[in-house]
Every structure is written in structure tokens, then in C-alpha cells.
Design goal:
Strand order of the largest sheet: 23-28-24-25-26-27
Distance between the termini: 30 Å
Helix content: 40-55%
Shape: extended
Radius of gyration: 37 Å
Number of helices: 30
Number of strands: 28
């Protein structure tokens, strides 16, 4: 654009932009399109509104916002400021290319316009998140060492004053700032120590660096206009992915433990809907995890719809009529899925989760601990913040780790209006969650994590990162066995059935006991199958003690058979059945003998099995054909509840839609400048007769008309068209802006004017 002596206003400048440039502006500021503006003048008016400007400035970095600050100091909202004046104010603290890039970002958002001389919208200075003029302050004396020394020399009262400013607004009003105030007052002491800045007789300000030191954040110079360079550590990508795979396997195992715990004993929901501290402690004790792990994992399981609150089936024995947190029916499919698929369900749920699990356990405004799965954990901005952190981590080459403090410092420079959301604590906590999920490992973004972030095949990436399943175990003389890696699914299920986990990790240790072997026999495995399992899959010799134990347990197992009568008990050995009938278990179950080898009970089969098993008789369940049946309970389940929709970026118009909108804007602009004979020039709706008469006249004399039109969505617009047909309640007209014949409903036409 060629500059003129009298700088154009924003509407004139927007009119001079190309269609592509206008589409770019509307893409960056989609709020300007709702409802669709009818003319460029309307668009410019919206672009100057403070609320819209503040939204558009959230994505600007420190350099761009500092340029707004400098232009505000020079009065660019009232008169043009030359580029030379701006460059002199920046004084080589940023390169020419960086300044050009920042100005381009400001022009694209219609916050600044012009090239050799610059103008800015009046409300743009409100987007600067610090005091206008801070760029002119001297910061040479506020070194980290100087700040630390000064803070150590002040008393508790003065320190409390600084802490208050650090936690709230850095600007404070006080009468102690006035000249002549006693030098013993805390404010005067802090001013002399350089820990406060004097603004006027009633106002002081906490320097940016001092606030960072008080909050425990990395100290940075706010007048630096170049982005901070993070220190990095390079790891082989294979090592990063291997560590991520290990975390993923632990994540899956720990989530399985929580699902099992809630299936066995559903947790009562709080009245507000969360999970109480007492229940978290119970799950912690049952699973061997710590409370922070349990809090994060129940949030993940709920986000993936694997647990929910509701009425469980079966109901707990001590049911109080309240809702319970328990697994949903969806968990059965998740349990049988591949490890990579199970990981992907949890990781993708976390990435889009509109909650901040790291807040669990912190104190709310009433000084009560924030409960897991409660409304207090809700955070609509969390998905955007996670992606921002991970995108920063994804920028260096693969396998590059960046410290949380450096990420915090870098994001604070890039997004100064959102700096509070990226201070050290939330960044550290979110990175810890990402590490637990295997998205980040060793401080670097893993390959599965990068695929998840950028919409790739994350499940396949994790499948490649996980170690290949093995088909063998190592039996030891003390009746333990070691799986030196993840087992093949079928072997894993059988080993989990015949042995109990003692410790898990890269290698899992199991212990074989009499009870674990009986568990396998209960579901139909025979002694021969147990011998074959260990002989086939053990790389070490099968201990003789294990062979003896299998034979001994199998010999005693199943001599007693229970079925449905309601239930029956049968045994080939009359002496054993007589022993059962003489025991306390017979009285508890109300067993009645029908024959020397058969007895019946009104108790359920599951209860008969549990009571006789607890009495040491080792019964086996059978069906109507006498075959062994698996009576293990899958635990409680609740119906899958419709969860809140995951975070999605707000719907924005497509480029094609914005292109059509710009075309409409051009047509509206042309129509607004057209003159001629008008129907209802007072602005009220035209009568049908007058509208029809003027349109027929225009058709007859082949004149273009300007029409005001309200579409079915209630959006008003103006356009210049050339009528080609009027009838049947419709106007057919050629629209030069689109080059098409368009139809307009006559009763929706609000005004008509012949074009001069």
C-alpha cells in the first residue's frame, strides 16, 4: 500500500487489502465473523472493540506486545508514527527481521496498519499485560544476585507486603509512597532497596524480576526482546522410546489394578460427585500405589469412560442407595485389547481432558482438599496448555530434552498474556503427567507422543516402541517364576491365572502357591495341563517341588462337586461328604443329604463354592453336563454414562467460507456507495407493492439496484445486483460480486434503490 500524507483510517486500510489478506485477518480473528458483517466499515468497527482485541492478542509474543507499548508511548493511536521512530526506540534490542515479523503479525490481526508510518487501534494498548512505559525502566541493577541479597536483608513485614504483590497485581496503592514519609516505613525501605518502583505519590510497583524471585520462577529481564534460548540435553531416540514404553506398560498395569479394586469394591461417590480422600486411601492400600498416582489414574480412567459413577451391578453388600464409582462395560474390551491400544485410549483421553488432575489434593478457597473426579478439577484451558507445552518440547530435534524451568521461561516470553498459566509449577506437573503416560520420557518427547500430538498413528508408534512379547518364563527353586519381558497375550493370561504377581517392572516376578494352582483348577485346567504349561514355557528346569505341589493340589481338588439345585453337592467318596455334612459349613449352607454321595442346598452355587472353599474342602463347580465351569466374578459394572465432550478447538470458519464472506463484504461495500431512487429511504422495511414496482422498473430499463436483504439466519446484508426476472415471490438477479445468478425471496428484501 502506498502511504499518503493523511493516514487512512482502519476501514479504508482494510478496504485496500487483498481478498487473501482479509481472509487471513478473519482466520486469526474469527470472532469478527459472528454475525457476518455487512460492510468493511462494520468489520473495522468490530476490529477496534476492546474485547476482540484482547482475544486476538493472546497469541502475540513479548516483542509484538512491546511494539504495541512503544507505539502507545509515541501516540500511534492518535497520529502516525514513522518506522524510524519505532526502530530507534527498540534500539537494536531486536533484529530488523524479528521486528518485521512482529509487525506483520500485528497487521494480520488489524491491530496496526501502515508500513513506513504506523497507526494502531486505540484499544490495542490495553492488550499489553504490563504497565505502559515499563520498557523504559532501567533493569541493570536487578540481577538475580542483587535481588537475593536485598530480599535477605528485609524484615517479615516488608516480605509479606512483597508476597502480596507477587501473588496478585504488581501495582499497589499506598499513602506511604508520598515524599516526606518516614524512612522507617516498610514501603520506603523497599523503595530504597530497589525492591519496589515509585510511580506516583500513591502508587508503587513490584519489579517483574522481584516477583519472579518471590514466586520461585526463573528470573528474566522483561526488557529483553529476544526469545530465551533453553539449555538442552540430547538422548538417543531409541533410549527415549524405550523409557516411554516402560512407562506405558506400568501405566497399563497400574490402571488394571485400580479397575480390579473398584470392580471388587465400588467406591461411594461424594455428594458433589467426586471420589473422597478415604476411598483414595483404600484404593492406594489395595493397589500398592501412592495417592498422587491413584488420583491421576482415576481421572484418566474416567476420561476414557472406563470407570464412571452410577448404580453398580451387582450392588455392594452394604449398599446405601448412593452412586458408586466402578468400572463400566467398556473396560472389558479395554482389558483384552493390545497394550498399545490400551495405552492409546488413556493417552488420547489425557491430551483432550478438560481437567487438571495435578490440582487434586491441593486446598480450595475453603481450605479443603480438592477431591479427585470433582468439579474443582475442571479446567477448560488445560488441553490447550498441554498442547502448548508439548509443541514447545517438539521443536528441537528428536530426543532433545528441555528442563521445565526453561520451558516455563520460553512460554512466558512467547505468551506473556498467559504467563501465569505457564509458570514452573503447572509446567512441571503437566510434564510429570506426560511422563507417567509415556508421552514424554527423559524430558524429551517420545515418538508415540509426537504422533499423538500431531495426529499421526500413535498406537502404531507405541507398538513399535514396546518390546516384542516373549513366550517363555524362568522357573526358580523357591516356586517363583520370572518373566524377563512382556509375555505373549495367551501365555500372560495363563501365567496370571496360575501365579500371583510379587513385583512388576521391566521383568515381572510371580509366586506359585497352593491357592493360585487351585484357582487354575477351578476354571477347568487339569494337572496334566499345568505340568505341560511349565515344561513347555520355562527356560529353566521345572523344580521337583512344583511338580509335587501340582499333583497334591490336583488330587484333593474336585473330589467334591457343586451344582444347581438351587445348588447341589456330590462326591464319589461318601466319607468325605459325611465329613462335609458334619462341619459348620453344612449348617451355614443348610445342606441336606439326598444320598450317600449327594446333598442339596438352597444357597447359590457361588455361595456354596465360597463357604466350602473357606472350610478347606476345595470344591469344583460344574454345569448340568458335569463339566468344570469358571465361576470367577468379573466384578461390579456400572452403565457407561455420557461424559462431557472432550476439548475441541472452537469451531472456526473454513477458508472457503471466509472467502465467500469477503466476497459478500465487497458486495456490501459496493452497495453502500451506490446512490439513486430509493424505496423507503427512512430505513423501515419496504412495502411489497413498492418493492415489486421498483424491481420491475429496474428489470425493464436494465438498471442495477442496491437491495437490503435478511437471510433465513437473520443476517442482514446489502448488495448491488442486476434483475433478470421477478415473479413467484422470487427475484432472480445477476450478482457481479460472485458472477452468478442468485435468487432472493421478495419478502426478505428490506430496501431497494436504483443505482445511479
Amino acid at each position: 500500500m502506498t502511504e499518503t500524507a493523511a493516514e487512512p483510517d482502519l476501514a479504508t486500510w482494510l478496504s485496500s487489502r487483498t481478498d487473501t489478506e482479509l481472509v487471513g485477518t478473519l482466520t486469526l480473528r474469527p470472532d469478527l465473523t459472528v454475525p457476518p458483517p455487512s460492510t468493511i466499515v462494520v468489520l473495522a468497527g468490530r476490529a477496534e472493540q476492546r474485547a476482540s482485541i484482547l482475544r486476538s492478542a493472546d497469541s502475540l509474543d513479548t516483542l509484538a506486545l512491546t511494539i504495541l507499548e512503544l507505539l502507545a508511548i509515541e501516540g500511534a493511536h492518535e497520529m502516525p508514527v514513522t518506522r524510524a521512530i519505532l526502530d530507534a526506540a527498540i534500539d537494536k534490542r531486536a533484529g530488523v527481521k524479528a521486528v518485521d515479523k512482529a509487525l506483520t503479525a500485528l497487521r494480520e490481526r488489524a491491530l496496526v496498519w501502515g508500513t513506513r508510518s504506523l497507526r494502531m487501534t486505540p484499544a490495542a494498548k490495553d492488550a499489553v499485560p504490563w504497565r505502559i512505559g515499563r520498557i523504559l525502566d532501567s533493569t541493570e541493577e536487578l540481577t538475580p544476585e542483587r535481588i537475593t541479597e536485598a530480599l535477605a536483608s528485609i524484615d517479615d513485614g516488608a516480605r509479606g507486603l512483597l508476597d502480596t504483590l507477587a501473588r496478585s497485581s504488581p501495582t499497589g496503592r499506598t499513602r506511604d509512597a508520598a515524599p516526606g514519609t518516614s524512612p522507617d516505613r516498610p514501603v520506603q525501605k523497599l523503595l530504597r532497596a530497589g525492591l519496589l518502583i515509585w510511580l506516583d505519590e500513591q502508587t508503587v510497583e513490584l519489579p517483574h524480576q522481584v516477583g519472579q524471585a518471590l514466586r520461585g520462577e526463573p528470573i528474566s529481564d522483561p526488557t529483553t526482546l529476544s526469545p530465551p534460548k533453553p539449555s538442552t540435553t540430547k538422548y538417543p531416540l531409541a533410549d527415549v522410546n524405550a523409557a516411554a514404553a516402560g512407562e506405558a506398560l506400568e501405566l497399563i498395569r497400574h490402571c488394571g489394578l485400580i479397575v480390579e479394586s473398584l470392580a471388587t469394591a465400588p467406591a461411594p461417590a461424594l455428594k458433589a460427585g467426586g471420589l473422597g480422600v478415604r476411598e483414595i486411601k483404600r484404593i492406594t492400600k489395595a493397589t500398592g500405589l501412592d495417592e498422587a498416582q491413584v488420583s491421576l489414574l482415576v481421572e484418566l480412567l474416567a476420561a476414557a469412560a472406563l470407570i464412571s459413577s452410577g448404580t453398580p451391578d451387582p450392588l455392594p453388600s452394604n449398599d446405601s442407595g448412593e452412586d458408586y464409582w466402578a468400572p463400566t462395560a467398556a473396560v472389558d474390551g479395554w482389558i483384552t485389547a493390545t497394550p498399545a491400544a490400551r495405552w492409546h485410549a488413556l493417552a488420547s483421553a489425557w491430551l483432550e481432558l478438560q481437567r487438571a488432575p495435578w490440582l487434586v489434593g491441593m486446598r480450595d478457597p475453603n481450605d479443603k482438599p480438592v477431591a479427585a473426579l470433582s468439579e474443582e478439577v475442571r479446567s477448560p484451558a488445560a488441553p490447550r496448555d498441554r498442547r502448548t507445552i508439548l509443541e514447545y518440547l517438539a521443536e528441537p530435534t528428536s530426543g532433545t530434552a528441555i528442563d521445565a524451568a526453561d520451558i516455563s521461561r520460553g512460554l512466558a516470553w512467547r505468551r506473556p498474556r498467559s504467563a501465569a498459566r505457564f509458570n514452573s509449577r503447572p509446567v512441571t506437573k503437566m510434564l510429570a503427567e506426560a511422563t507417567t503416560l509415556g508421552i514424554v520420557a527423559r524430558g524429551a518427547l517420545s515418538t508415540p507422543g509426537k504422533a499423538l500430538l500431531h495426529g499421526g498413528d500413535a498406537e502404531a508408534a507405541m507398538r513399535d516402541a514396546l518390546p516384542a512379547p516373549i513366550d517363555y518364563v524362568l522357573l526358580q527353586a523357591d516356586l517363583t517364576l520370572v518373566a524377563p519381558g512382556p509375555l505373549e497375550p495367551d501365555l500372560h493370561d495363563r501365567i496370571e491365572l496360575v501365579a500371583d504377581v510379587e513385583s512388576a517392572g521391566a521383568a515381572t516376578m510371580y509366586r506359585i502357591t497352593e491357592n493360585s494352582l487351585r484357582r487354575a483348577l477351578d476354571v477347568g485346567m487339569s494337572a496334566a495341563e499345568l505340568h505341560s504349561l511349565f515344561a513347555t514355557h520355562s527356560r529353566t528346569p521345572v523344580p521337583q517341588g512344583l511338580s509335587y505341589l501340582i499333583d497334591d493340589v490336583a488330587r484333593r481338588h474336585g473330589r467334591l462337586r457343586a451344582g444347581m439345585a438351587s445348588s447341589f453337592v456330590r462326591c464319589e467318596d461318601p466319607a468325605l461328604l459325611a465329613e462335609v455334612l458334619a462341619s459348620g459349613a453344612a449348617e451355614q449352607l443348610a445342606l441336606r443329604a439326598l444320598a450317600p454321595t449327594v446333598a442339596i442346598s438352597q444357597a447359590s452355587l457361588a455361595e456354596v463354592m465360597n463357604v466350602l472353599g473357606a472350610a478347606g474342602f476345595g470344591p469344583a463347580g460344574e454345569d448340568a453336563n458335569g463339566a468344570i465351569v469358571d465361576l470367577r466374578s468379573r466384578g461390579a459394572r456400572v452403565p457407561t454414562r455420557r461424559t462431557r465432550a472432550h476439548y475441541r478447538n472452537p469451531a472456526v470458519p473454513t477458508e472457503e467460507q471466509l472467502g465467500r464472506l469477503v466476497t459478500e463484504l465487497r458486495a456490501g461495500e459496493r452497495a453502500s456507495k451506490a446512490g439513486g431512487q430509493t424505496v423507503r429511504s427512512d430505513g423501515t422495511r419496504a412495502t411489497g407493492t413498492a418493492t415489486l414496482a421498483l424491481l420491475q422498473t429496474a428489470l425493464r430499463v436494465k438498471r442495477s439496484v442496491t437491495i437490503g436483504y435478511v437471510d433465513a439466519q437473520g443476517t442482514a446484508s446489502q448488495r448491488v445486483v442486476e434483475p433478470v426476472g421477478v415473479g413467484g415471490g422470487q427475484l432472480e438477479a445477476f450478482d457481479a460480486a460472485t458472477g452468478e445468478i442468485r435468487r432472493f425471496t421478495l419478502h426478505r428484501i428490506t430496501s431497494v434503490a436504483l443505482v445511479d
